Backbone:
């Protein structure tokens, strides 16, 4: 069965948003393909102006054949409500599709068109307060890479759209096909539904070169015991001075930072592999599956079973 996937462009779309098409294009190259018919559409057809001076030719959505399967709406970059004819086109185009996906700023336009009332929608953290104020009937989620609410999918940013599209391929074609696409795209990690928007390293963001070097050393040696003396030696500091500087720059102790990075590695393995819990704990540097479980509960509020199932812990 060929599924129609159409990108509905709004003026001001970001070029990186278009990478979502590459996920479906590469899925078409898997054995048994093609599986998707891809198209780029807009309310009226013709050229649509994007960011960075780009312009893209589109078809009118009525001519695309997208109805009945997947419509992906790319955002406009500001809070200006869509013009009446665009809002009407969004409402008509979304009627009857199997799933509709929202990339980043498109949430504002769809909410203004009345398409997200009482829906849970993932948005960027910086975007959330203003969206809540403008659209109180939309259930804004500001701590997820992407999420789904029935047939409504949403993601928090441009690169998150790739993670979301891989999850759609997994839903349609299975995990092996999605992983093959991720490998073809040379993705370091496929972030999954329920995962936080920022990585542990991005959250810590140390200022000085020695602490940055230590964090890189930790990431590359998670399976080692990683004693405090060893890390202080990497920074060429005394143990006491290193502990003080590390906490000042990252906001946490070296032990907590190691746990967060190991938990992040375990999270990715739980969602992207079929390894046993014991094997994942070992690969992520934990002493046992139980110590991994406790760390995941502290960092993510989820058990290994919840993460593997893709459901939030109760």
Residues:
């Amino acid at each position: 069965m060929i599924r129609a996937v159409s990108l509905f462009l709004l003026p001001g779309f970001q070029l990186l948003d278009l990478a979502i098409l590459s996920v479906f294009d590469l899925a078409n190259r898997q054995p048994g393909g093609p599986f998707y018919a891809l198209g780029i559409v807009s309310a009226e057809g013709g050229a649509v102006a994007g960011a960075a001076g780009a312009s893209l030719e589109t078809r009118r959505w009525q001519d695309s054949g997208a109805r009945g399967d997947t419509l992906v709406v790319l955002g406009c970059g500001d809070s200006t409500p869509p013009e009446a004819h665009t809002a009407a086109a969004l409402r008509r185009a979304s009627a009857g599709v199997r799933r509709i996906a929202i990339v980043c700023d498109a949430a504002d336009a769809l909410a203004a068109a009345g398409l997200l009332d009482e829906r849970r929608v993932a948005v960027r953290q910086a975007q959330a307060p203003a969206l809540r104020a403008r659209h109180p009937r939309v259930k804004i989620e500001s701590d997820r890479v992407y999420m789904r609410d029935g047939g409504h999918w949403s993601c928090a940013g441009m690169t998150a759209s790739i993670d979301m599209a891989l999850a759609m391929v997994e839903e349609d074609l299975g995990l092996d096909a999605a992983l093959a696409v991720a490998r073809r795209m040379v993705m370091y990690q496929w972030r999954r539904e329920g995962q936080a928007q920022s990585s542990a390293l991005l959250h810590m963001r140390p200022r000085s070169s020695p602490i940055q070097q230590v964090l890189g050393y930790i990431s590359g040696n998670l399976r080692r015991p990683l004693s405090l003396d060893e890390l202080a030696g990497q920074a060429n500091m005394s143990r006491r001075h290193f502990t003080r500087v590390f906490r000042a720059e990252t906001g946490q102790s070296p032990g907590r930072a190691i746990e967060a990075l190991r938990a992040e590695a375990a999270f990715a393995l739980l969602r992207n592999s079929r390894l046993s819990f014991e094997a994942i704990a070992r690969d992520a540097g934990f002493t046992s599956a139980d110590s991994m479980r406790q760390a995941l509960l502290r960092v993510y509020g989820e058990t290994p079973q919840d993460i593997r199932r893709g459901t939030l812990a109760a």
In short: The chain has two domains: 3-184, 199-314.
